[in-house]
């Protein structure tokens, strides 16, 4: 069983309306090229930055981005992992939120970024999402025609537990809308995808916005797909583009059977890794 995955490395602008129009055109193009599962990047409809989150935030129910994403998924007849957008949620709290849509336009899942991006590499990259955002607290999976798929957002990829739990719940892929930067991108973007893929013998894909050198936060780009043996099977440069890869469930099964680490774990030795 296979399905073609498309990652849309969208050129995000300051105009939410223009971003939604561009995203729609690209989702339809990906579907015409045979994609059954389509992914948009983190903050696909707004610039990425704490000052932008409250300005661009919208509710989950009947906000312009949710309506546009539902229509895109329905009109293109695809499973759509709708990147993320700043959400104004319960008690007026802000979240970095990914919505997942089915080919009939129904919402299949919601992932609120669990691990907020708070880092400080002096002189290079400082960011504090927690100054504005609240964190989600759920591991998110949804059912696709080729099996369960897990969803995280960007910094979530640094936390192996999330992908491991998703894999142990039966996921065959983890998909991360993300926007690494010019410091951590070259160091860790691909390595983390390959690490999570090998840890769990699953496909891992990460979808970035295109690089905009004029933006306050410059995204690394390089949206890519890694297979269950840890090989990079598709990778973009930094410009706006779409990359495709066929997800093959049989390859997940063979990888897990050939190197059976998932059934060799010694939970008797490490029942709780927090200790
Ligand atoms: O982990 C990183 O280096 C980057 C994470 C990030 O940009 C994000 O979570 O939005």
From TrEMBL:
GO molecular function: omega-amidase activity
GO cellular component, one term: mitochondrion
Keywords carried by this UniProt record: Hydrolase
Coiled coil: none
Tree of life domain: Eukaryota
GO annotation, biological process: asparagine metabolic process; glutamine metabolic process; oxaloacetate metabolic process
Family matches, as InterPro entries: C-N_Hydrolase, C-N_Hydrolase_sf, Nit1/2_C-N_Hydrolase, UPF0012_CS
Domain CN hydrolase, chain residue ranges per copy: 3-249
Record has Chloroplast as a keyword: no
Family of this protein: Belongs to the carbon-nitrogen hydrolase superfamily. NIT1/NIT2 family.
Protein name as annotated: CN hydrolase domain-containing protein
């Amino acid at each position: 069983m296979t399905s073609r995955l498309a990652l849309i490395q969208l050129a995000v602008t300051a105009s939410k309306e223009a971003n939604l129009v561009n995203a729609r055109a690209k989702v339809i193009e990906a579907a015409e090229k045979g994609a059954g599962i389509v992914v948009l990047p983190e903050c696909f409809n707004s610039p990425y930055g704490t000052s932008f989150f409250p300005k661009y935030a919208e509710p989950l129910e009947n906000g312009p981005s949710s309506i546009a994403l539902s229509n895109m998924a329905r009109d293109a007849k695809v499973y759509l992992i709708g990147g993320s957008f700043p959400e104004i949620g319960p008690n007026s709290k802000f979240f970095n939120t990914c919505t997942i849509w089915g080919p009939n336009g129904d919402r299949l899942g919601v992932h609120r970024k669990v691990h907020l991006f708070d880092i400080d590499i002096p002189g290079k990259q400082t960011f504090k999402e927690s100054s504005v955002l609240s964190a989600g607290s759920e591991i998110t999976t949804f059912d696709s025609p080729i099996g369960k798929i897990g969803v995280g957002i960007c910094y979530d990829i640094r936390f192996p537990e999330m992908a491991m739990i998703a894999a142990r719940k039966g996921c065959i892929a983890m998909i991360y809308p993300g926007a690494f930067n010019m410091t951590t991108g070259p160091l860790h973007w691909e390595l983390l995808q390959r690490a999570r893929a090998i840890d769990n013998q699953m496909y891992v894909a990460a979808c970035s916005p295109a690089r905009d050198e004029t933006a306050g936060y410059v995204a690394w780009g390089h949206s890519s797909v890694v297979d269950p043996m840890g090989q990079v099977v598709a990778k973009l440069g930094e410009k706006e583009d779409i990359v495709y890869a066929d997800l093959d469930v049989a390859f997940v099964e063979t990888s897990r059977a050939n190197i059976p680490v998932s059934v060799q774990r010694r939970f008797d030795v490490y029942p709780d890794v927090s200790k």
